[in-house]
Amino acid sequence: MNLSNQSKLTRSHICSQLDSEMIGEETVVAGWVQRTRDHGGLLFVDLRDRSGLVQLVFSEKISAEALTLAEKLGQEDVIAVRGLIRKRPEENINREIPTGEIEITGEEMELISPSETPPFLIEDNVNAGEDLRLEYRYLDLRRPEMLEIIKTKHQAMQTIRRFLSQRDYWEVETPILTRSTPEGARDYLVPSRLHRGKFYALPQSPQLFKQVLMASGIEKYFQIARCFRDEDLRANRQPEFTQIDIEVSFIDLEKFQREMEELMREIFALKGISLPLEVPRLSYREALDRFGSDSPDTRFGLEINDLSAIFAESEFRVFSGTISSGGTVRSIRVPGGAEFSRSQLDRLEDKVKEHGAKGLAWLVFSEEEVSSPIAKFLSQEEIQQLREELNISAGDLLLIVAADYKTAVTSLGQLRLELGRQLDLIPEESYDLLWVEDFPLFTYNEEEERFEAEHHPFTAPLPEDIDLLEENPAEARAAAYDLVLNGEEIGGGSIRINNRDLQSRIFSLLNMSEEEAEEKFGFLLRAFNYGTPPHGGIAFGLDRIIMLLTGRKSVRDVIAFPKTQRATSPMTKAPGTVSPEQLKELNLKTIPPEEE
Fold it and tell me: What's the Cα-to-Cα distance from 80 to each of 2, 48, 548, rounded to whole Å?
């Protein structure tokens, strides 16, 4: 074994460079041992590097010394081999790999770095749990499918930089150590050693800084930025993630949105995916009405229907009572759903209950009759109206939720997605892109009895809704827009406020005093005093985009070193404890869990 950390054999080619046109040439290849096959005096080794596989062949006739070394190889040993490229016998050609027509004779071999037996096979579709793969992430990343994802992400970032630079955007870095501001999720805090008792915060986004850049005259900015949010995690969230951050002064919104659509087309073209040229637009309210989500998956039907007009005067008080108290009755028609068993219907009811609904009513339609526990409470006129207005056919199933508006549509929206998966209605090779617009400017926090920003407090209201800030702020709409792909919000943006008086009014509506606004955002407000151009922009979630681009189900699969759903790293064991000396230097003291 070579202990010098340097190989005596210098690699001349990577695996993917080798082909049948090079037969007879000498090469030196290096990489990891994928597998060995001993045929009694004839040993075959599959060598893997980042670019692919090539077969090596060792025998006494070629080199007895190299054969002796090769016979001791194990999986994931790192080796270098010098030999001749030769054609494989016709019966041994492997059509599944690019180098399948050739092999390399083992004239000389060097064991550079031996490997212990890995805890799982280094191959695609490996049967190993996620925690184990994350603990040994350096092995997991060796698998071809993971290397392809990392390569794709790299290519996407190069595409983004090229696309935006060609259009005169400047890439500008913004600080990682900033100050804590109330923008939604909790901040990650960093104690300052030099300023005792004070803390930096890691940025949730570069929002404030990119607005200051617009005030600074940069005009067109972008950044592939690291962002940090201390929030509960889901499959498409991580405590640290990468954002494509873009901002423009003197913005022409329609032109800007077309430009962003084109950026997405270029990214998805990396995998041969064509995104639609015509991108539809839905209002926030229409998206909720039809799909039960402000990031709807429009690749399949099962749209939500409003039955409130039919049941407003119904004898069935569960429906009419809900409507009279300000709620709504909504439904999904499932063609052919009459075949659902009672246990399947119970599971569907559990699904809507998970999202706040108290229950799920159902009706099964035949040619003449309706089967349902609630059928006896409904009039023939109501049933006939359902048949006509929903275009119901024999064998259809109608699923109904009666609740307040938000609960009814969101619970049915989740049910719709579940049915789409169960009934195999979602075309996996289809890509539906759309803009969702006209979001509410505020949401009302019932518990705290105050307004909160739907997006963030720097989003401008639509010009025609500015008067509503005084009259009825709950009805004011934001000049905000989300770009949605296949039910995933991949980007969100807005026109920003560039006027100090308007920004102060928004802060006041958010129950923020002038003193608090000055303390947290004084630098932005002061910038508005010196001539700030109108501006707006968007932020794309790069990890979500790569997740969709590579067909993965979780952003953890497209981040080199992700955290688990508990925000821990099985590999580094982060977060960890620090020494008493470090705490003392920072003037901090930890509280044991039993004392909390």
Answer: 11, 11, 37
Nearest 5°: the CA angle 11, 16, 18 is 70
Contact residues for 362 (Cβ-Cβ < 8 A; gap 6+) = 345, 348, 372, 397, 398, 399, 400
The predicted model gives 525-554 an average pLDDT of 96
The DSSP output letter for 191 is: E
- 378 is a domain residue: yes
pLDDT digits (tens, 9 = 90+) for 565-582: 889 999 999 999 999 999
Is residue 134 situated within a structural domain?
Answer: no
Under a CB-based contact definition with an 8 Å cutoff, are residues 362 and 399 in contact?
yes
How far apart (Å, rounded) are the C-alpha atoms in residues 356 and 347? 15
Separation between Cα atoms, residue 110 and residue 435, nearest integer Å: 57
| Alpha-carbon gap, residue 290 to 305, rounded angstroms | 7
Alpha-carbon distance of 296 to 417, in angstroms, equals 9
Are both 260 and 335 inside the same structural domain? Answer: no
Q: What CATH number is given to the structural domain containing 411? A: 3.30.1360.30
DSSP element (H, E) containing 226 = strand 220-228
Residues 364 and 478 in one domain: no
Question: Residue 227 CB: number of other CB atoms within 10 A?
Answer: 21
Please give the model's pTM, rounded to 2 decimal places.
0.91
Contacts of 99 (CB under 8 A, 6+ apart): 15, 16, 18, 19, 52, 53, 54, 55
Average pLDDT over residues 467-473: 91
Indicate whether 338 and 442 sit together in one domain. no
Total domains in the chain come to 3
**Residue matched to tokens 């950390």:** 5
Cβ neighbours of 511 (radius 10 Å): 13
Structural domain of residue 52, as residue ranges? 15-113
Q: What is the CATH number of the domain that holds 469?
A: 3.30.930.10
Q: Based on the domain organization, do 48 and 75 belong to the same domain? A: yes
User: Is 570 contained in some domain?
Assistant: no
- Using CA atoms, how far residue 169 sits from 176, 222, 236, 247, in Å, is 21, 6, 28, 9
Where in 300-343 does DSSP place strands (E)?
A: 304-306, 328-334
